[in-house]
Design a protein that fits this description.
This is Nitroreductase/quinone reductase family protein. With about 300 residues, this protein is α+β, with helices and mostly antiparallel strands. The chain has helices spanning about 5-20, 75-80, 100-115, 120-125, 150-185, 195-225, 230-255, 265-295, and strands at about 30-40, 45-50, 55, 60, 85-90, 90-100, 130-135. The chain has 8 helices and 7 strands, in the order αββββαββααβαααα.
Length: about 300
């Protein structure tokens, strides 16, 4: 049975979508967006109306829960699945949700309370530190073509995103180790954890990679194999490479399951393995399949159109 909160939220969501992002009631005149997260336990999508504050190109959210003693459900969801859907006015896009830490969190929270003082009141009501979550759109997305006219172009879109996101995580990891080396003397104990910035970006990459390879294994490859039996060895090799990449992905995800305790050295080793294996796999997949996929329209037509 819907609770009063879920019923209220659903009414706001319907009004938001019916009026291009404009709503009345307690949200009238305020900055409001709809955030769609994936449940940390259920795996189901949940949409929540939330106030936000802009900081340049970034959108800032606060896990205030009205000053309650616990973080809101949507916050736990983004820790488990950082890729979120955002509806802002009539615009819809995906973003990566990254909780700010330390000095950055304090600076951004001060920025938020300068615009919306009510969040300061919420902080005063509770002993927990209200999390500040930054919605980021990866910079490399700007270089990815927005439209795809055939399956080959669609595959390249996905591969460009995966390559770019993996490169971004590696750059952040290199910067982390450089900063750690600069602050540690000889024989100093390593600092624990990697930080939420690296964690969230890597988990977003892992989620996208798993979805892409699962879709290929379940749909694309079996369909293509039916029309191209001469490529049986190619599909066997691609499936084997998927299993290898999935094993490394699982090891990365296991390391990042502890929000603050990932072993940095083990993470860097597994990330290097992922980079090597995935790069070889994507190169081979494009070489083997792009010429065939270029003949198939995107979005896909009826099965009879497959050649």
């Amino acid at each position: 049975m819907p609770t009063p909160t879920t019923s209220f939220n659903q009414a706001v969501i319907e009004e938001f979508r019916a009026n291009g992002g404009k709503v009345g009631g307690p949200f009238a005149g305020g900055a409001l967006l709809l955030l769609t997260t994936t449940g940390a336990k259920s795996g189901k999508e949940h949409t929540t109306p939330l106030g936000f504050v802009r900081d340049g190109d970034l959108l800032l959210l606060v896990g205030s829960n009205l000053g309650g003693p616990r973080h809101p459900d949507w916050y736990h969801n983004v820790l488990a699945h950082p890729t979120v859907g955002v509806e802002l006015g009539t615009e819809e896009f995906q973003a990566i949700a990254v909780p700010a830490e330390g000095e950055r969190r304090d600076r951004l929270f001060a920025r938020i309370t300068a615009v919306e003082p009510g969040y300061g009141d919420y902080q005063a009501r509770t002993s927990r530190t209200l999390p500040v979550v930054v919605l980021e759109r990866p910079a490399h997305e700007a270089a990815i073509p927005a439209q795809a006219g055939n399956f080959a172009e669609k595959m390249r879109q996905v591969h460009l995103w995966l390559r770019g996101q993996l490169r971004h995580v590696r750059d952040e990891t290199d910067a982390y180790f450089a900063a750690r080396a600069a602050h540690q003397g000889p024989g100093a104990a390593p600092e624990p954890g990697l930080g939420l910035q690296i964690r969230q970006h890597c988990l977003a990459f892992c989620d996208a990679l798993e979805f892409h390879h699962t879709s290929e294994d379940a749909h694309l490859f079996p369909t293509m194999a039916g029309y191209h039996p001469e490529l049986r060895e190619t599909f066997d090799r691609l499936a084997a490479e998927h299993r290898t990449v999935a094993r490394i992905q699982g090891e990365l995800a296991a390391l990042l399951a502890d929000v603050g305790g990932a072993d940095p050295e083990r993470f860097r080793t597994q990330l290097a393995c992922m980079s090597d294996e995935l790069t070889r796999h994507l190169d081979y997949e494009e070489e083997a399949l792009v010429p065939i996929l270029a003949e198939l329209p995107w979005p896909p037509g009826p099965p009879a159109g497959v050649r």
